[in-house]
Amino acid sequence: MIFYYNTDYDKPSGGMWACYRHADVLNEHGIDAAVLHVEPGFRVSWFENATRVENMKEVVAHPDDIVVISSIIEHQWPDVFPGLRKVIFNQGAYLTFHAYPLGYAGKYHYEDALGTIVVSEDSERYLRCAFPDIPIFRTVYGIDPSLFYYDPAIKKDQIAFVPARNPEEARQVLCILTNRGMRLPLVPIHDKSREEAARILRESRYFLSFGFPEGFGLPPCEAMACGCIVIGYHAMGGREFLKAPYAFPVSQGDVIEFVHTVERALAEDQAATALAASAFIAEQYSPARERESILGCWHQLLGA
């Protein structure tokens, strides 16, 4: 059995969604997997799922089981089925050392660590630099085409964004734009269900990306799939998709460049960009590529 260990956190989180998705893909292809929570009966409710879920208080682990543990809760490593083999799931490379004292080598070198799963080209590059000798496996996020798709007929002149991402710079950009005369409605997608966030993105003509350095950045990727004109920071992890001619990247932290780029994008017809962005994401981040990457990763980890 492969356990994707997680805390009991029931708010929108791309990292949690990915763990559920990995477990589903593995079970669909004959590899026993479950998301492992703490309390009996807990499962996330902010997106529809029928994922196999177990809990720490009732499950019985066997010596050949494997535990996948998120890099942000590595401090719990010794307490999660001691002695079992572990895999680190790093979906936020720039938080890799957030809990380490200076000079600490980290759990990536533990004897029971089989390897590390990452979710972007940038994260793979980061960890290969930080830990040159550990096995690293790149997986791909799959963007659900039944939720995130482009329908030009329903687009509205409104801006979607995630207010929790880099809120101080978001405030600066949006206040300056307002002072300079922009009057488009601002529609946050933070703390929305997956289905509701997808509906907002399908309806929004623009998406502003305020992400700070992170592993990937699902919201701008999903926004591009919906044909939004995405403007803003790629936050390092998103460099592989938030790029011209499909989006309008802005130098990290450059508030004035951000403002001028928004104004330039709003002043021009972006129909061709929206169509190209949606097609690009559909090809590069399809469920089929996601499935292939997850299975390929685990076939190597399991020695198949």
Protein described:
The strands form two sheets. This protein has a seven-stranded parallel beta sheet, with helices on both faces. A five-stranded parallel beta sheet has the order 9-8-10-11-12, with helices on both faces. The protein has 304 residues and is an alpha/beta fold. The longest helix is centred in the first third of the chain and has 15 residues, at 14-28. It is built from eight helices and twelve strands. Strand 6, helix 2 (121-130) and strand 7 (136-138) form a beta-alpha-beta unit.
How are the SSEs ordered, and which strands pair?
Blueprint: E1 2-5, H1 14-28, E2 33-37, E3 53-55, E4 66-70, E5 85-90, E6 113-118, H2 121-130, E7 136-138, E8 156-161, H3 167-179, E9 186-188, H4 194-203, E10 204-209, H5 218-225, E11 229-232, E12 248-249, H6 255-266, H7 271-284, H8 287-301
Parallel strand pairs: 1-2, 1-4, 2-3, 4-5, 5-6, 6-7, 8-9, 8-10, 10-11, 11-12
